[in-house]
Amino acid sequence: MFKKLGILGGMGPAASAEFITRLIQQTPALCDQEHIPFVLWNDPSIPDRSTSMQNGDDLPLPLLKSGILALKNIGCDYIVIPCNSAHFWYDSLAKLGVPIAHIVDSIVLELKALNITKQKIGILGTRGTLKSGLYQNHLNRYNWDCITPSKENIEMLIQPAINLIKANKIEESQELLLKAIHNLINTGAQAIVLGCTELPLAIKVCKEKGIPIVNSIDSLVKMTINNYKT
Fold first, then answer.
1. How far is Cα 127 from Cα 32, in angstroms, rounded to an integer?
2. Residues 167-211: pLDDT tens digits?
3. What's the CATH code of the domain at 70?
4. Does residue 141 register a pLDDT over 90?
5. Statement to judge: residues 99 and 121 lie in one domain
6. Is 149 helix (H, G, I), strand (E, B) or coil?
7. Does residue 19 sit in the same domain as residue 59?
8. How far apart are CA 46 and CA 60, in angstroms?
């Protein structure tokens, strides 16, 4: 339980803004005073997480730590990071003395809430997130089998779509993402996880061809609301 939320954002800025919008929309508040107090630390200068994950360096880590410590010093007693790839450094950040939500844990809770227990899960995300096994390693512990896109689909569909979203070309990204989702469904995925917080800006449906689509913005919002001490 917490009293003041810290949001480490800027990765990217639109995803952080979307998280805040959905947090406000989904909080069961009847007046201003019933909403969750939060501080946004929006730092778009943090080096690209996916690139560092692929290169094996820790270039984002110093600024990630600075953001966490700044939020802690302001008085935030619970922190969320609406960026999946930043959680590659979660263990280092969790040592800084303030509770930090793990975005993949929020997906686990959402899958369980939807009674998705043993199905094969298709994962969409950045090159780095998929290569690192961030989702695969986590979900495998709960006996889910993960299906990841082919290298061709990552390079030709998913990463270009994410880049388009970051450039605010949402409509142009949607056709690419739907192709990637359909390809995962065709290879046996019985649920799809949008494991990049840019993706829910373009894919707003909760099902495609009857297959549930779970996104990491809404799951993180739900976890945050459930952990808030009123």
1. 40
2. 999 999 999 999 999 999 999 999 999 999 999 999 999 999 999
3. 3.40.50.1860
4. yes
5. no
6. coil
7. yes
8. 6
Measured CA to CA, the distance from residue 8 to residue 61 in angstroms comes to 13
Q: With both helix axes pointing from N to C terminus, report the angle between 159-166 and 170-186 in degrees, rounded to the nearest 10.
A: 160
In this prediction, residues 67-96 reach a mean pLDDT of: 98
Tokens 């690139």 appear where?
51
DSSP 170: H
CA distance 134 to 185: 21
Number of structural domains found in the chain: 2
Burial (CB count within 10 angstroms: exposed 0-12, middle 13-18, buried 19+), residue 229: exposed
Question: For residue 194, what is the enclosing H or E element?
Answer: strand 191-194
- Domain of residue 126 covers 104-216
Same domain, 136 and 95: no
The amino acid sitting at 119 is: Q
The answer on pLDDT for 129 being more than 90 is: yes
Are 126 and 178 contained in the same domain?
yes
**Same-domain status, 29 and 82:** yes
Peptide bond into 12 cis (omega under 30): yes
Helix axes 103-113, 216-227, angle to 10 degrees: 90
